[in-house]
Amino acid sequence: MSNFEDVVLTVDNLVKQYGNFSAVKDISMHLRKGKSLAIIGPNGAGKSTTLKMIYATTVITAGHVEINGIDVETDPREAKRHIGVVMQDDLLDTSLNVVENMVAHAILFDIPWKLAKKKAEGLLKFVGLSNYKNKEIHELSGGMRRRLVLARALVNNPELIILDEPTTGLDIQSRHVFWNKLEQLKKNGVALLITSHYGEEIERLADDVMIINHGKMIVSGQTRLLPAQQGYKSIEEMYLGLTGYTKEREEIEQTFS
Fold first, then answer.
1. CB of 91 closer than 8 Å to CB of 166
2. Which of 102, 130, 131, 153 could form a disulfide with 84 if both were Cys (CB 3.0 to 4.6 A apart)?
3. Nearest to 79 by CA among 23, 162, 166, 5
4. Cα dihedral: 202, 205, 210, 215 (round 10)
5. Do residues 106 and 119 lie in contact, with contact meaning Cβ atoms separated by under 8 Å?
6. Backbone conformation region of residue 170, classed left if phi is above 0, alpha if psi is from -120 to 50, else beta
7. What H or E segment, with its residue span, contains residue 121?
8. Helix, strand, coil tally for the chain in percent (to 5)
9. Which of 147, 116, 115, 107 minimizes the C-alpha distance to 131?
10. Which of 168, 166, 197 is closest to 183 using CA atoms?
11. Are 49 and 23 contacting, i.e. CB atoms less than 8 angstroms apart?
C-alpha cells in the first residue's frame, strides 16, 4: 500500500507471461493527482499490455497494481470506477447517436438515466461537441470521434485517465484541441497515463517519461531533464538512441545498398 495520499496509481514489479514469452518484465511506477506519465517504446515493447493489466482487462502474472489504494486484482470493478480509458480503437456504438453513446456508457457505472444525460451534456460542452449531440457517429470527423471518446471516459469522474496513442491519425489542429482538453483535466487534478509515438505530444503533456523495450524499462525520469541526463538533445533523439534505432537503420541500409 502507498503512504502518499495523493498517489492515484501504484504499480509494483508488474509481469506478464505468455507461456515462455515475457511480454512485460518487472515494470514499476507511481502517478500522483494532476501529474502525467508517458510510456514510450517500439511496437511490441509491452506498452499496451502494461496498460491492459493496469485497467484490469488482462490478467497479471506477477506484481501488484493499485488505483486509489484499490487492488486491481482483488476488486477490479471498484478499481475501474476510478479510471477513464481512451484506447486507439474508439469502440463507439454506431447504432446510437452522440449523446446516447455517452448515456449508455454512464449507465455502466450505475449512474441514473437523468443524471447520466445531464453529465453527458456537460461533458459534450467541455469537449466542444454540444452542437453535435444528436448527430450519428458516422457524421463525425476523426477529431470529433476522439473528443467524444475522451468525454465518454470522463462520465464516472475518474481520478486517472489512461490514453493509448490518443491522437494517432488526427490532423494538427485536432491534435492541439485534444491536448488543450487534457491540460485542463490535469489542472483539475486528473492524472494522465499516456502512450504515444509523438515527441511533441510527450514533451507537452508528460511530466515524466518511461522508455520500455522488449517488456523491460530502460530508463525513466522527468521529461524536461531526462534527455540531457542521458546525453541526448530531445525525447525523440533519446528514444531512437536507446531503442536500437541506429543499429536497425544500419542493417536496413546494408540490405538495400
1. no
2. 153
3. 162
4. -70
5. yes
6. beta
7. helix 113-126
8. 40, 25, 35
9. 147
10. 166
11. yes
Question: Residues 191, 31: contact at Cβ < 8 Å?
Answer: yes
User: How many Å apart are CA 15 and CA 67, to the nearest integer?
Assistant: 17
Cβ atoms of residues 167 and 147 within 8 Å: no
Residue 157 lies in a domain: no
Q: Which three cell numbers stand for residue 213?
A: 523495450
How many whole angstroms separate alpha carbon 6 and alpha carbon 147? Answer: 27
The neighbouring-strand residues paired with 9 are 31, 67
C-alpha cell at 153: 471516459
C-beta separation of 161 from 185 below 8 A: yes
- Asked, for residue 137, whether it belongs to a domain, the answer is no
CA atoms of 235 and 240, how far apart (whole Å): 9
Residue ranges of the chain with per-residue pLDDT less than 70? 1-4, 245-257
Q: What is the pLDDT of residue 90?
A: 83
What is the grid cell recorded at 164?
493509448
Give, rounded to a whole angstrom, the gap between the first and last alpha carbons of the chain.
Answer: 56
Owning domain of residue 31: 1-80+193-257
Q: Using an 8 Å Cβ cutoff, are 213 and 39 in contact?
A: no
Tell whether 109 is covered by a domain.
no
d(CA 236, CA 98): 36
Q: Give the pLDDT of residue 247.
A: 52
Gap between the Cα atoms of 237 and 230, Å rounded: 10
Q: Which three cell numbers stand for residue 178?
A: 485534444
Return the CATH number at 39. Answer: 3.40.50.300
Q: What is the pLDDT of residue 255?
A: 52
